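User: Fold this; tokens only.

Assistant: Input:
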Amino acid sequence: MNKKKLLALALCGIMASSAFAGCGKDVEISEGSSVEATTQAAAPAEVDIMNFTAPEKGDTIIEMNIRDYGTVKIRLFPEYADKACENFVELAKKGYYDGLTFHRVIRDFMIQGGDPTGTGGGGESVWGGEFDGGTDPHLAHVSGALAYANSGGTETDGSQFYIVTGTQDITDDLFASYEGYGYSFSNKQKEIFKQAGGAPFLDGNYTVFGQVIDGLDVVFRAQYVATNANDKPLNDLVIDSVKVTEYNGEEIKWYLKDYNYDDPTKADVVNYTAPAEGETIVKMKIKDYGEVKFKLFPEYVPEAVENFVTHAKDGYYDGLTFHRIIDEFMIQGGDPLGTGTGGESIWGEKFDGGKYFNLIHAAGALAYANSGGTDSDGSQFYIVTGSVFDEDELAGAAQCTDSAKKVYTTYGGAPWLDGNYTVFGQVFDGLDVVFKIQKAETGDNDKPVKDVIIESVTVEEYDGSPLRWYPSDYEGIGDSTEAEETSEEETEAETTEEASEEETTERTV
């Protein structure tokens, strides 16, 4: 198996099976607090988990309307979290939450809101300042749980809250992995999490005080918004209203399987969405190689597209080079210094281009290089060539959707980059040119021995010309077996991606 693939997938696989959600970063709940494993002397008491206890008719419940998504109804647990429930109910009655946003959204983990500043650093309780909501072993972080964010302990609860989505496929093996980090779970906790999904590693550290009884599908759809490097939605995810009402005996739907839920992970990759006639495209002429045409995606990453298009119109890229080329990975350019350390956005300095989960690093994807997150996007970009993966190699890539896996196993790409870089375009003609460039002879720091020059980047309108998205659409680059047969020397050269992180300011690994 290709060593580069093993290394890259190990990064995602370890994180997917550990106590930290997301690939490549530790999960934080709020205000800079980290969710870390805490070694417990003994397993928690075998108490019943009460999240799925039905409310009585007339009990107080919460109705939360999320703009463009729908209404979520939440059962409260004053018998286990009295101050926590009182705080939320009184804030809701005052209209405190109306018009606020979910300022932090992490897929397969949670959606977080309730901060009037929208930064994760604001908010207060109904009594002013912070309060201690406590924890109770009867309430767990199952999918749909409502809890308070804090900055180091439940005594720092305020107005900020989150609703858990979490991991859906929780197994004994995953619990064993959590326990390897020092966590302990009762048998009843394990049973309920395996049934409902969630984020078990949060139990005991945050105040759970409610559970979704209707609208769990709304929460799960909302977690797929496009976000920036700080997990902030690119377009506001607005809480139109939070109302205090009563339970009237309506149907309760605790589990995701109770809904006619259209799982976004089953949705198609959007890289291959055909441009409409007259739509803005970009044409790049590369000296001695040919012409490459790109479809752009302003509907998902508007600032990323605006930056590239404006630079192109200004002639910023004309005459620059591809300063870094790695065979079966990518070609990188857009730096006026030609060193990998220069360039800026149209606004000066850096900007946050964000990311969208179904814009992936397929062969032909156009994306921004960065120096640690999408908030450090500038002018430097790369075009993916990558290689073809098999199903086993993608088994540990938890962030790959089913559609993405199909692309990576059929046409190839660089799946380990997904979620960490801003993909904003896709080659629809000239992929053979890109694949030819990746074979250029290189020297130190993967810099071509002979300059590969971008003669021009022009902004045009799509005229209905043929779309050739896939390597298989071109003679000589569609043979997936050829991509797999890399020599030992080539394979070891590919692993220099990791080492090059410290050698360049803007990078793609």
